[in-house]
UniProtKB/TrEMBL annotation, chain A:
It comes from Cottoperca gobio (Frogmouth). This is AFG2-interacting ribosome maturation factor. One of its GO terms (cellular component) is cytoplasm. It holds the Pfam family CA109-like. InterPro entries: CA109-like.
Automatic annotation (TrEMBL), chain B:
GO terms for molecular function: kinase activity. The keyword Kinase applies. The gene is cinp. It comes from the Eukaryota. The lineage of its organism: Eukaryota, Metazoa, Chordata, Craniata, Vertebrata. Keywords: Kinase, Transferase. This is Cyclin-dependent kinase 2-interacting protein. InterPro entries: Cyclin-dep_Kinase_2_interact (IPR023250).
Length: 202, 206
């Protein structure tokens, strides 16, 4: 009775881990693209601050009509461009998160449907090459939670940014970097190593 | 002017109308090329300008220290480097001056086309547009607009060149760099004007 159920559960687990493996790379690449964008944001804020600190009429630039307004406009425009790019990156992160969340919830649902015909031994049994079903479900949920939280934190950071709040923009790269969680990423990589034989076995 | 071109497949359609068409179309292409090259020059100039500011800001605490110490031998190593970068920036500016001169020529040539038309057709100009919908005057207006933008921007850049290496406050240095990078006198609509020009003259497909 439990044989077909455990087989299809294994299939689903395998698919989820493969999906996480692929998406982990995508996630990393997108984040790598974001860092230089955050640095440009801070840089533009620094330029705005310098502009507001300087009294143009006391400098050799005084002869240029509405230089300050024009430059301010150009800086704002550049800031806007960077923010648009960052938002595009956030959409990529969101789609990674959605893919992983959907995969994992599908597996959990499948487990719940067949939980009645799976006894404790089947669920916790492990072999030299395959971890137990319960362990793998836990790892999947850990990974899913990680991407969900990461996405939310980064999205929140971006949403609090305002083009006219220079100190927020200036500190953005630092705060963005502080959201990094190498231990969680490592944990996911470890998990993928642990299930590598299992993934290859079928 | 009329027999001045070879009828290749690319320009045969225009050549059927008049020499002015060819002239305007070539001018539009020149505008495009000049603006692309200007952007490239702007990038080159920016790296030189950024180097100047870096050398300059690195040196300024040293200068203060020298005032106390009164030792005359130390500061020369940065000076040669600074001079070098200033020369690079000067070269960029010289090229930009040449480009604005070329833009003025384009403007003059456009004016010439306009004068010819007034001579041929009177003050209200030709009845049918040379291309899709623009009157000949419109080309001249576009050229003048672009020339004004770049002329003013060149003046700004010349001022920056003169002042940059003599500026000690970091905020003002930043404003100069920012001006160089963002080109405040070349507004975003310059790009639109160019695209409109290219679209009207058929360089860009409608």
């Amino acid at each position: 009775m439990s044989k077909p159920a455990i087989l299809s559960l294994h299939q689903a687990l395998m698919k989820s881990f493969q999906s996480i493996e692929n998406n982990q790379k995508v996630w990393g690449n997108v984040l790598a693209d974001c860092s230089p964008l955050m640095v440009s944001l801070a840089n533009l804020a620094e330029q705005s601050r310098a502009l507001s600190n300087v009294q143009i009429s006391n400098t050799p630039l005084r002869d240029f009509p509405d230089l300050e307004a024009r430059l301010h406009f150009k800086i704002l425009q550049a800031t806007d461009t960077v923010l648009v790019k960052l938002n595009e990156k956030m959409s990529s992160l969101q789609s990674v998160r959605d893919t992983i969340s959907n995969q994992v919830s599908a597996v959990v649902q499948l487990y719940e449907q067949s939980a009645d015909c799976l006894d404790l031994l089947t669920v916790t049994e492990r072999s030299a090459t395959a971890p137990s079903v319960s362990d793998m479900l836990e790892w999947l949920q850990d990974a899913e939670r990680h991407y969900r939280q990461q996405f939310l934190r980064r999205k929140t950071l971006l949403q609090t940014l305002r083009a006219d709040d220079l100190s927020l923009l200036e500190s953005a790269p630092k705060r963005w970097k502080s959201l990094e969680s190498p231990s969680a990423e490592e944990h996911i990589s470890d998990t993928l190593c642990k299930v590598s034989f299992f993934i290859e076995s079928q | 002017m009329e027999g001045d071109f070879t009828a290749t497949s690319a320009n045969r359609k225009c050549s059927a109308v008049a020499g002015s068409t060819r002239k305007i179309k070539d001018n539009a292409a020149d505008w495009h090329n000049l603006m692309v090259r200007w952007d490239k020059l702007n990038e080159d100039g920016f790296s030189a300008a950024a180097n100047i500011v870096n050398i300059r800001l690195k040196r300024s605490p040293m200068d203060q220290w020298l005032l106390v110490d009164e030792s005359p031998s130390a500061p020369s190593d940065g000076a040669a480097e600074l001079q070098d970068e200033c020369c690079k920036l000067q070269v960029v500016i010289n090229k930009m001056v040449v480009m604005v001169t070329k833009m003025e020529c384009l403007m003059t040539s456009q004016r010439g086309v306009q004068d010819l038309e007034e001579f041929q057709f009177g003050a209200e100009g030709r009845k049918f547009p040379l291309f899709h919908s623009w009157s000949t005057k419109k080309f001249e207006e576009s050229s003048r607009l672009l020339l004004d933008y770049f002329g003013q921007e060149l003046k700004l850049k010349q001022t920056i060149l003169q002042e940059l290496a003599h500026t000690a406050t970091s905020d003002l240095c930043m404003v100069y760099l920012s001006c160089w990078l963002h080109q405040p006198f070349i507004p975003p609509q310059s790009r639109l004007t160019l695209e409109a020009l290219l679209l009207e003259t058929g360089h860009r497909p409608l």
